[in-house]
Design goal:
Blueprint: E1 2-6, H1 14-22, E2 26-30, H2 44-53, H3 57-68, E3 70-73, H4 79-86, H5 96-103
Parallel strand pairs: 1-2, 2-3
Helix pairs in contact: 2-3
């Protein structure tokens, strides 16, 4: 089974993550950068971490989601961006402290405005 849900640093479903992990359900994140609705690429914390790890913000976001247990689905129109997005498997990992910092970016209005999965019957 795969549960594909919208997920980004601004939109995390911690209870769903735990449930899926506890029940061997793969997680896939779509809209990891918020599709421009949220200013993820200009977030002060993510820019700070980008400089710290010498990666772009997108790479920091993708690494964060991978470390949370997601497979990440993203859209790009250029080969250069596709290569850059995949350049997170070179030994680059976010520290536990930095993962916790990114967790604090979670917000109720962090997505497309779709109904919360917690509210579904």
């Amino acid at each position: 089974m795969v549960n594909q849900i919208e997920a980004s640093p601004y939109l995390q479903w911690f209870n769903i993550i735990k449930y899926c992990q506890d029940n061997n359900i793969a997680l896939q994140a779509y809209s990891p950068l918020g599709s421009g609705l949220m200013d993820v690429k200009n977030d002060a914390l993510l820019l700070e971490l980008s400089a710290k790890y010498q990666k772009d913000v997108g790479q920091v976001v993708f690494r964060y989601l991978i470390q949370k247990g997601y497979a990440v689905a993203y859209k790009t129109t250029t080969a250069k961006r596709m290569e850059s997005n995949q350049d997170i498997f070179d030994g680059f990992e976010l520290s536990t402290e930095d993962m916790t910092k990114i967790d604090t970016l979670n917000r109720l209005d962090g997505g497309w405005g779709l109904p919360s999965p917690y509210d579904l019957p």
